[in-house]
């Protein structure tokens, strides 16, 4: 038994408190798993049609389009 703040505390309680505090601290210190949206340079298109064409071209060039060659 140990005396903590004037109270008798068992060794097993201190061990559980230490482990709980350690793992809780580790959990909150870890970075979140949310994936940030990948952003590229801004598209300076003159019209919405041109912007759509550029975005479709980039998607097809990266292999993500419907008409992408396999």
Descriptive report:
The protein is mainly α and 70 residues long. It has 2 helices and 2 strands; from the N terminus they run E-E-H-H. A two-stranded antiparallel sheet has the order 1-2. Strand 1 and strand 2 form a beta hairpin.
Give a quick set of tags describing it.
single chain, 70 residues, mainly alpha, two-stranded antiparallel sheet, 2 helices, 47% helix
Radius of gyration: 28 Å
Straight-line distance between termini? 70 Å
* Shape annotation: rod-shaped
Number of helical stretches of at least 4 residues: 2
What's the SSE pattern? EEHH
| Helix/strand structural class | mainly alpha
Poorly predicted segments: none
Taking the sheet with the most strands, its summary is: 2 strands, antiparallel
Task: Please provide a brief summary of the model.
By secondary structure, this protein is mainly alpha-helical.
Write the layout of secondary structure elements.
Elements (H helix, E strand, L loop, with lengths): L1 E3 L2 E3 L1 H19 L18 H14 L9
Antiparallel strand pairs: 1-2
């Amino acid at each position: 038994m140990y005396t903590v703040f004037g109270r008798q505390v068992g060794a097993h309680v201190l061990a559980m408190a230490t482990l709980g505090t350690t793992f809780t601290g580790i959990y909150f210190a870890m970075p979140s798993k949310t994936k940030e949206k990948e952003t590229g340079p801004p598209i300076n298109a003159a019209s919405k049609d041109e912007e759509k064409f550029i975005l479709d071209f980039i998607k097809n060039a990266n292999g993500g389009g419907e008409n992408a060659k396999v």
